[in-house]
Amino acid sequence: MVKPHIVVTVKSENTQWRYWFLIFSNSNITKKSTLMKFAFEPSKDHSNSSKETIAANAQNIYSISSLKVIVAEDHNANSVYIVKLLQNLGIAPEVAKDGFEVLERVRCAPCDVILMDCHMPQVDGLEATRTIRHWEKEGKLPNKHPIYIMAVTANILDSGKDECFQAGMDQFTSKPLLKNKLKADLINIWGRQALPLSGETMALEWHKNIHKIFIRLGSLRTDIGDKDTAELIQDWIDATPLRLTQLEETIENQSTEEMYRLAHSYKSICQIYGMTLMASLCAKLESQSLPSQQAESHLIVKQLKELFNAVKPLLKSQMH
After folding, report:
1. Domain final residue, candidates 159, 194, 229
2. SS3 of the chain: helix, strand, coil, percent, to 5
3. Which residues contact 207 (CB under 8 A, 6 or more apart)?
4. Which residues contact 59 (CB under 8 A, 6 or more apart)?
5. Is 248 exposed, middle or buried (0-12, 13-18, 19+ CB in 10 A)?
6. Which residue, 68, 61, 213, 63, is CA-closest to 145?
7. Does residue 268 lie in a domain region?
8. Which tens digits make up the pLDDT trace of 256-310?
9. Domain-embedded: residue 51
10. What span, in angstroms and rounded, lies between the C-alpha atoms of 188 and 182?
């Protein structure tokens, strides 16, 4: 019996070619049916992969250990408990016994998150929060972004929640803190701060896309391993500026056909990494007509550049 040959056709895109080559070279494909399922559903279970392995790989991508966290709590037992939870998540927090210590710490060094008890001696959590928000408006803190302040309190009444939000806190959480809930909250906080974008709608959509990127990178690590995934990521980072420049030049030259070709190619590459928002912008470019939609097309490329600059540090942090 003649053994079947596998032919993969990819149009002149190095990243796409490397992706499929690495997928095939890292998989034990023995049946045509397996190949077809694998080719059309590359992120699903195949070879020795499992949903559990993919989930574990995706979980490793969350870099919440980089968050700078202050635990503001005057009761020692509560403080020790919260610190242990955070340490278990890979975070090394600082501890402040009252609002005055919190203010001293945020003035001296950047901080990402404060787990703020509302009732503390000297300066309570509400007053400390109001002061922090005032300092942020006046540019008196070393932070590049607003500090995320989470109220951690035993007061679960609506009036207590209202007080916290009016003081400028971002979230209200009742005691005792639960590990999985805290972890999910910190992942969301890290996602917002790691990918700052201008424009409320764009920022919201990108925040929704973050989880898909994590899952896709986890799947890639399962499919082809850490080293090859890192190489693919580097290929994308290196090649993207040139691709976006080519798109700009094509729009300037009013070549609808070439714009479609470039946008279509880049769309498929973005999909490899789970970047659905960037892929959808490329799809929008595919439907544009020049010169009548030239200004709108330039705006789309500007948004693509912004998204690339936002996601690049996230991807670089995974190249280990």
Report:
1. 194
2. 60, 5, 30
3. 188, 191, 192, 195
4. 218
5. middle
6. 68
7. yes
8. 889 999 999 999 888 888 888 888 889 989 888 888 888 888 888 988 998 888 7
9. no
10. 10
Same domain, 256 and 285: yes
Q: How confident is the model at residue 246 (pLDDT cuts 50, 70, 90)?
A: very high
Please write the tens of the pLDDT for every residue from 57-85. Answer: 444 444 678 889 999 999 999 999 999 99
Verify that 156 and 262 share a domain, yes or no.
Answer: no
Q: pTM for the whole thing?
A: 0.51
Q: Are residues 82 and 163 located together in one domain of the fold?
A: yes
- Structural contact between residues 284 and 259, judged by C-beta atoms closer than 8 angstroms: no
The number of domains in the chain is: 2
Q: Are residues 178 and 208 in the same domain?
A: no
Give Cα 262 to chain centroid, integer Å.
Answer: 26
> Which residue range is the domain that position 232 belongs to?
200-316
Contacts 24+ apart (CB under 8 A), 159-164: 160/118, 163/118, 163/126, 164/118, 164/126, 164/129
Q: Are residues 190 and 215 in the same domain?
A: no
